[in-house]
Amino acid sequence: xxxxxxxxxxxxxxxxxxTGCFLVLFILFHMSxxxxxxxxxxxxxxxxxxxGANWYALAATVILAAGVVVHFVYAFILTIDNYRARGKQRYxxxxxxxxxxxxxxxxxxxxxxxxLGLGLHLVHFWSKMQLVEIMGHxxxxxxxxxxxxxxxxxxxxxxxxKWYNVVLYIVWFAALWFHLTHGVWSMFQTAGFAxxxxxxxxxxxxxxxxxxxxxxxxxxxxxxxxxxxPQLIESLLVAA
Amino acid sequence: xxxxxxxxxxxxxxxxxxxxxYKVENISADTSFLEMMDILNNDLIxxxxxxxxxxxxxxxxxxxxxxxxxxxxxxxxxxxxxxCQMYMRKFEDGSTITIEPWRSAxxxxxxxxxxxxxxxxxxxxxxxxxxxxxxxxxxxNAIPIPKADADESMxxxxxxxxxACAATCxxxxxxxxxxxxxxxxxxxxxxxxxxxxxxxxxVAKMDELGFGNCTNTGACQAQCPKSxxxxxxxxxxxEFLAAKLxx
Lengths: 240, 247
Fold this sequence. Notes:
- The structure holds two protein chains of two kinds.
- By secondary structure, chain A is mostly helical.
- In chain A, about 75% of the residues lie in helices and about 5% in strands.
- In chain A, strands 1-2 form a two-stranded antiparallel ribbon.
- Chain A is elongated and about 60 Å long.
- By secondary structure, chain B is of the alpha+beta class.
- In chain B, the strands form two sheets. Chain B has a five-stranded mixed β-sheet with strand order 2-1-5-3-4.
- The relative contact order of chain B is 0.14.
- At the A-B interface, α2, α4 and α8 of A face α7, α8 and α9 of B.
């Protein structure tokens, strides 16, 4: 079994399936962390403190980054293979086949939007939190405020006080929603755990997971936009 | 009925092809698509022109020879039938019909609408069979097989190997064909014996011949003239991965 994960079509797809599954589980974990913001700002900061630049959070970050890189690189390898297999001559007339979702035919484009959003997100948050601690500092300057690396609540309030950030993040979550409506049931199919009885159930599960993730993230961004005031940000900075 | 036909004409594998437009008139609504093509070719021959080359054989939907991508559909707009079983009443009188050959790197065009589908034969030769010694005919009921398994095997065995799946797939993947062959044997005790070897060698041959990777769009099952389900692809994945994990 040395290399079927790199040299066979089904093996390469299994890598997509497993890394995809891992990323979905991480996203669900991240979403539940964010949801604490709705109940208590200090609880959210406690989570941020727990996941600073300590060994277990750093190890998890490295594994997570590897998951993203492998999923992304394999997506390109598979797409290049597929482009070649399709051949140079294309059909003059094409149709949208019955029962074929738009997302399933545009997974790479959706994935690229998700990666671009991830880049923005890392600049907005990771570079102001874990990276600051890795560099041995304690705080970063954000929009004129000195924000402690563990003060995620203040950082969120500052970032989402800008309407355009809220819009950008919602576009990002929407791309992720489409990606997951196909990706979540597809990972079961690729791993071989699917049949005609289970397709409706797996597709229903995919829609539920995708929608849950969309709403879970969007609600926190919108909440921050609605409640964020300079006074609240000041009080969060002082409290920390 | 009258139709305008836009047909892909290509002299041979090496030459550049192009669409040419033809008119066919006074076609009965109950003419099959291939009979309509015969009428067109008759007209072309009478006019001293080259007839359109297209594949066909049994004309009753079981041989898998007819192909053609018609108005964006493999085997035309009718559901679950091959081109030979589609009738002109399915089209609007006076409409334009675009007819193209299968488009997939593994199925090169030989001439006009004829493509080389021997890649599918090579995949079959790699393992799509049961190795048994020929002998006297065994008792048909000697090995009891659950009805559900026999039915599923037969559903997969309905594959005629026409190539519509790979021709439809945006990835040029042959997974539905390979899955149908693997699945039809995997569900029966006779085929079970060589299950692991079969899945591995057929997938390896499919990859070697340059077919693409399945991305589970389901376009193949929507266009398959035998309505073969992608559930067989899940079984192929299962068979292949289980076999590889035992190596």
